[in-house]
Design a protein that fits this description.
Layout (H helix, E strand, L loop, with lengths): L2 E3 L4 E2 L2 E2 L3 E3 L7 H12 L4 H9 L14 H6 L9 H8 L2 H5 L4 H12 L7 H5 L10 E4 L1 H11 L24 E6 H7 L21 H14 L7 H14 L3 E2 L2 E2 L1 H12 L1 H11 L3 H8 L12 H10 L4 H6 L1 E4 L2 E4 L3
Antiparallel strand pairs: 1-4, 2-3, 5-6, 7-8, 9-10
Helix pairs in contact: 10-15
Length: 335
């Protein structure tokens, strides 16, 4: 077990933790809490919540953990525990940050770093209408086997838990459902036993969709960067790319033509399947996103942005290189 050890003691009236697991690469913070629950030998999640947050009746937030300020205060200052690193490397925040306004980004960071683990980032963002986290905990059998071999235990990868991701971007293997339902965990105050995953003796390749693979790889690339692009500039980038495809006329997006080409590109059957799983109104959200306004930009599922980027053949390295800092404002230059 990879942990950093902290002496038991008291700090400002708070019980200090005796240990807390060090997060592994791309480990979802929910998984870190699950490993703490297992190694602490607590009999219930109530006790684990008491240890970490001084609250008994909460459920660990999978996508956007909140109340991290309390947890940090319970860990020795001699140990490395940086909230920014935890948020950017072990939550969904770096993915969603690119697709929301800067003011909301700061608000979300304040909530996550704050002292109230009961607050919901989804409520703050107004994105409760679609499902960000997979219904069931998912895993790649090759990743899990490699992690057990390397670290002595397996864990949940962040990228695998995003709703809409069906393929491991590293091993290009179809993800497997653990059968554990996140909503069940919330209702029953239960946390998943990460060690309960069984490694199959033989891992056979499973047919995968080329779109699922592309979505997975682009999403992984988006997760891996700390973007400094304003949402308005990203929208302008979309519009310029749409214009280059002759889908722009007299200053307006030719929406009907755009929708037709978009559907023809991915296929009606594939889009119907994935948008049903995401819980979104595909046509309505797509039209809102590609409308002509660069100031009124709706919150949509990040996978819809990924689909648009694939359709518009967006090169993320090119996009990143075209953003420069000028007079403390980010400007996007399109050639």
């Amino acid at each position: 077990m990879n942990t950093f050890v902290v002496f038991i003691g008291f700090k400002g009236g708070l019980d200090m933790l005796s240990f807390f697991p060090t997060p592994y690469p791309d480990e979802l913070f929910y998984s870190v809490v699950a490993r703490y629950h297992y190694w602490s030998r607590n009999k219930s999640l109530f006790q684990t919540n008491e240890d970490l947050y001084d609250f008994r009746t909460i459920v660990p937030q999978a996508a956007f953990p909140t109340g991290l300020g309390i947890l940090k205060s319970k860990i020795s200052q001699n140990q490395s525990f940086e909230l920014d690193s935890l948020i950017y490397k072990h939550s969904f925040f770096p993915l969603i940050e690119l697709f929301i306004n800067n003011g909301k980004s700061d608000m979300i960071l304040d909530v996550m770093k704050g002292d109230d683990p009961k607050k919901s980032v989804e409520v703050q963002l107004g994105i409760c209408r679609f499902q960000l986290i997979n219904r069931h905990i998912m895993y790649c059998p090759i990743c899990y086997a490699d992690d057990v071999h390397r670290y002595g235990e397996g864990y949940l990868h962040r990228i695998h838990q995003l709703n809409g991701i069906k393929v491991c971007p590293i091993h290009e293997h179809a993800l497997i459902s653990s059968g554990f339902d996140y909503s069940y965990g919330k209702k029953k105050y239960a946390v998943f036993d990460v060690g309960s995953i069984k490694i199959p003796q033989t891992i056979r390749p499973v047919p995968i969709s080329k779109w699922d693979l592309q979505i997975s790889k682009m999403t992984a690339a988006l997760f891996s960067r700390r973007w400094h692009i304003r949402l308005e500039d990203l929208k302008k980038f979309y519009i310029r790319k749409i214009e280059a495809m002759s889908l722009f006329n007299s200053g307006f997006v030719r929406r009907k033509k755009f929708n037709e080409q978009f559907i023809d590109f991915f296929g009606q059957e594939y889009l119907s399947t994935i948008t049903s799983e995401l819980g979104i109104n595909f046509i309505a959200d797509l039209e809102k996103l590609i409308n002509d306004s660069t100031t009124k930009i709706p919150n949509v599922h990040p996978i819809l942005h990924v689909l648009i980027m694939i359709f518009l053949e967006v090169d993320l390295k090119y996009l990143e290189q075209k953003v420069v800092l000028s007079d403390q404002e980010y400007e996007l230059f399109i050639t």
